Amino acid sequence: MSQMIYPMNHSDRSSSDRSLSETAQQNGDASGRDTMTAQAALRIALAARQLPGIDVRALLGLLIQHLSAPLSEEKLLKLSPKAFRLMVSSIQGGPGRKETGNAYAVLTQTQPEAEPPRIKAVEPLAAPKLYAAVTSNQGEMIDGHYGSCLNILVYEVNRDSYQLIDIRPVERHLQGEVRSQKLLELIHDCQILFTLSIGGPAAAKVTRADVHPIKRATPTEAGEVMTELSQVICNSPPPWLRKQLGLPPDFSAWLSDDAEAI
């Protein structure tokens, strides 16, 4: 639960993602060809993290052999699942099918054939409650990176339950500061943001908007995380979460009042 209830360390995450993408770009430069785009480098770096035994350099080499340099997002998006599986399997002792699928999803940001999430007509949950945003690319998964996700899912969460209340598509053509501002608008009414990855500058903007960014190390079912969040609210939310819920300073008194009501 510890990775859920504490806001992320922006500097650590920023340094990690930046280092990976810079490694990818530097190796692209070392090939003696035109430099790949920054977004392509980030996708490759993050995809490599999903592949045990395959580092950024190895993945970059495979992609250049298959797609030719310079690599770009457009080329990555045209890569088929079968071609990617064959590329990865060419490395002896390579990752399994699940890891390969996760890496492909990160690399191409494509949506597998899955039922899109649906919003049911339900009554609002009782307060105190939170609104949690999720960066998602497929179904009700936390599997999107903040800067390039396809959808923002919004959940209403209290101590007893949670429910999906909104699906906010992110326009893919938006880039740079325009995209950054749009993402902030999409999460402006939320208190928490669950994401697979977020850079330091973006995380700082999200925090200034009074939204706590919390990273997940691997793609995770949103329902699993919302259940954990609901349990934290019910049992003993940390001070920052207590403040977001509007709970009184004397949290034990709130628990006692609730117990008497039951």
TrEMBL record:
Report biased composition (Basic and acidic residues) as residue ranges.
Answer: 10-20
Region Disordered: start and end of each range?
Answer: 1-33
What lineage does the source organism belong to? Answer: Bacteria, Pseudomonadati, Pseudomonadota, Gammaproteobacteria, Vibrionales
State the name under which the record lists this protein. Answer: Dinitrogenase iron-molybdenum cofactor
Family statement: Belongs to the NifX/NifY family.
Which residue windows does the record flag with biased composition (Polar residues)? 22-33
Keyword annotations for this protein, in alphabetical order, are: Nitrogen fixation
Pfam families referenced in this protein's UniProt entry, alphabetically = DIMCO_N (PF16844), Nitro_FeMo-Co (PF02579)
Provide the Dinitrogenase iron-molybdenum cofactor N-terminal domain boundaries: 37-104
* Entries under Gene3D superfamilies matching the protein: Dinitrogenase iron-molybdenum cofactor biosynthesis domain, Dinitrogenase iron-molybdenum cofactor, N-terminal
- Source taxon at top rank: Bacteria
- Keyword Chloroplast assigned to the entry: answer is no
- Dinitrogenase iron-molybdenum cofactor biosynthesis domain sequence ranges: 139-230
